[in-house]
Amino acid sequence: MSDGYGVVVIGSGPGGYTAALEAARSGFRTALVERRPYLGGVCLNEGCIASKTLLSAADVLEEIERGGVFGVTASGVEQDWGRLQARRLEVIETLRAGVGGLLRAAKVDVVTGEARLGGAHEVVVTHEGVETVLSAERVVLATGSSPIVPGPWQGVDGVLTSTEMLSIDPLPKSATLVGGGVIGCEFASMMIRFGVDVRVIEMADRLLPMADEALSSALADALRRQGVVLHLGRKVERIEPGGDG
Predict the structure, then answer these.
(1) Number of CB atoms found within 10 A of residue 118's CB
(2) Are 166 and 143 in contact (CB under 8 A)?
(3) Full-model pTM
(4) 68-99 pLDDT, tens per residue?
(5) CA neighbor of 192 nearest in space, from 225, 241, 218
(6) CA distances from 184 to 105, 129, 205, 228, 230 (A)
């Protein structure tokens, strides 16, 4: 089966769906291909939005615990991890629906399936064993990224990606985060405030090595105040299961 489009976008994350909306608004007949049965890509489902939802909950918990500073005291305050997970999913579902509504309003055709480039100006989409060929004057690749576990660590008990950590249940008593970039620092700040003993290992001599040094220093100070243990300028050589983790 063949359809002709001015633009076919592969990937429905922030780069993909915004590109599709812009193409449609510019007068191109547009299709958006997503291999998963939901929209939004990594950012919405397993990245920025998901982590910020949990970070917001950690902020609320911290403010309540600091209430005495403002003359407000509370007792029996604790986090409900199951309810926090439900809240995360509620936010994601709401925003998925919003993205879908924007695409429908712009008359973008959403096609579910695994996309690959075919012949000249062709995108082949496979879904449940059926191939659909989309012809396109232009193709936008917005396939995003995904977390990986380095080969030597694959299959080691307790080694998880950031995606798996978002929905871990129950929360672990302790966690070592390999990498002091944006994602590692987000998880460190969130988990320490939920009562997890957190350590961060970063091979560079500072956190966020691609950011301004002043920002890195301020963030390191903030995490240390929260109780996070930082191991900077350290490289992980191996990970081995032990009696205590």
Answers:
(1) 14
(2) no
(3) 0.86
(4) 888 988 888 888 999 999 999 999 999 999 99
(5) 225
(6) 37, 38, 15, 11, 11
